[in-house]
Structure formats: C-alpha cells, structure tokens
Amino acid sequence: MAIVRKKPEMIGQQVGWCGGCGHGIIQRLVAECCEELALAEKTVQVVDIACAYWSIDALNADGIAGPHGRCAAVATGIKKVLPGANVYVHAGDGCSYVIGLSETCFAAERNIPITMIVANNGIFGMTGGQMCPATTLIGDKTVSSKKGRDKGISGDPFDMLNIISNYDIAYAARGALYDPKHINETKKMIKKGFEYQRDKKGFSMIEVLSPCPTNWKLSPVDAMAKIRDENEKIFPVKTYVDNGGNR
C-alpha cells in the first residue's frame, strides 16, 4: 500500500530560502517530528538572525529570534521559565560554533534540556558568504578567503561534536541531507533529540550537513555531491553521544 505524505500542518507558508538550501528540509523534519510526537502545541523555536530566521514565518509555532549567536542562551531562558515546553534551536554553524560558541558550550555544560539543531553549511550564509572558522574546509573559497581557506592563516576547521561530547549531555549526533537515506536518518536523530527533551534526559545537539548552493556557487545537485564527497570526510555522519537518559 502506497504511503501518502502530506505537508505537516505546522508548516504555514512558503518562505524565502534560496533554491536548494538545506534549511527548508530541516524545517520540514522538525515539523514532522513535532507532530508525530504530539509536541506541536508545546513547541517554542529559537532561531538566529540569519538564514534560520525564515522558520519563524514558516512554522505555526511560538518562537523568538535571539541576538546573533545567542540562541542557546535564549533557549535556556525559555526552558527555565517554561519547563514543559518543547524548546529547540534552529541555527547555523557560524551562530552556534563561532559567535555563540560560549553560549552553546555553557548550555551543554549545564545539560540544559533543550534540543539544538545546527546547520553545518561551511559558511556564514546570510551575511554574504564569509568563511566560517569552525566549518569552512581547507581550500574552500569564500568572500573572506578568496584564494581558498589557508591553514597557515585560519587554522583547520574543527569538529564541534567532539568538543560537546566531553560534556555530560544526553545526545549528540550528526546527520546529512544529500540523499533520502540520510534525510531519513537525520529525522530519526531530530526526533530522538525531542524525545530526550520531553523525557527530561538533558541537552541534545543534532548537527546537519547542509548545502548552501548560493554561496558555494554550485548547482543544488553539485552542492549535495560536495557534502557527500568532501564535507563528510571532515565531519563524519554518526552518533557521538547517546546516554539514553541513564544519568
């Protein structure tokens, strides 16, 4: 029997992400997970003042756009005031790992029961395509590394999930969006993050390898291939921490 897939009711309207952008896929997965777990009415989203901001307009859920890089801190405040809410962050790698590195680490260190969903697209997207110190690959060209990222100048990108794994948290995993199999696996990761929050098991981070065709100056198809052939070699798709709430 054929499975009929319908647009989640949480998705209220189309918004302005660029063609081929991964943020829209992430938003769809979030909506599906919230509805399947009966959490839609309890959900509060925290987005960055960057590409993820469109989710505020797209989803029928309460939400707030925090100052650039401060999403984890804003989500922490909301969770403290509304402990029964399903509070999640939808932000980029620049927000979460560079400008907001301190806020992200302290939310993890305190094991705040929120779910962080971080789009790793290897670049600062909304501000014009600058190099992201955390995730831009060596040799990748951006508007602030026109000859390609130079290790001698900017150092290496780093795997944030290795750092987060040193904290006593509930869950940390990395998914990808370059084919249906990986999209389905990423959905399972996001759902687990929401389940662990619902069950008061602690902090979860799900990083998602996501394309940015506009700033990468690639077609959507070639951008997906880049994730598979290049980015995943530096940022492996796997589960880093799964404490299952046994704390």
Task: Tell me about this structure.
The protein has 247 residues and is of the alpha/beta class. Helix content is 38%, strand content 17%. The chain has one domain (22-242): Rossmann fold. It has helices at 23-36, 54-58, 71-81, 93-99, 101-109, 151-154, 160-164, 180-198, 213-216, 220-234; strands at 43-47, 62-65, 86-92, 115-120, 123-124, 130-131, 171-176, 204-209, 238-242. The strands form two sheets. It has a seven-stranded mixed beta sheet with strand order 2-1-3-4-8-7-9, sandwiched between helices. Helix 4 crosses helix 5 (101-109). The radius of gyration is 17 Å and the shape is globular. The mean pLDDT is 93.
Q: In a nutshell, what does this entry contain?
A:
By secondary structure, this protein is an alpha/beta fold. It is built from 10 helices and 9 strands. The strands form 2 sheets. Strands 2-1-3-4-8-7-9 form a 7-stranded mixed sheet, with helices on both faces.
Gyration radius, in Å? 17 Å
The mean pLDDT is 93
Largest sheet: 7 strands, mixed
User: Beta-strand level of the residues, as a percent range?
Assistant: 15-25%
Strand and helix order = HEHEHEHHEEEHHEHEHHE
Euclidean distance between termini CA atoms:
42 Å
Structural class: alpha/beta
Number of domains: 1
Q: Count the strands?
A: 9
Task: Supply the CATH architecture.
Answer: 3-Layer(aba) Sandwich
Strand arrangement, largest sheet? 2-1-3-4-8-7-9
> Based on CA inertia axes, which overall geometry fits?
globular
CATH superfamily: Thiamin diphosphate (ThDP)-binding fold, Pyr/PP domains
Looking at the structure, the CATH topology is Rossmann fold
CATH class: Alpha Beta
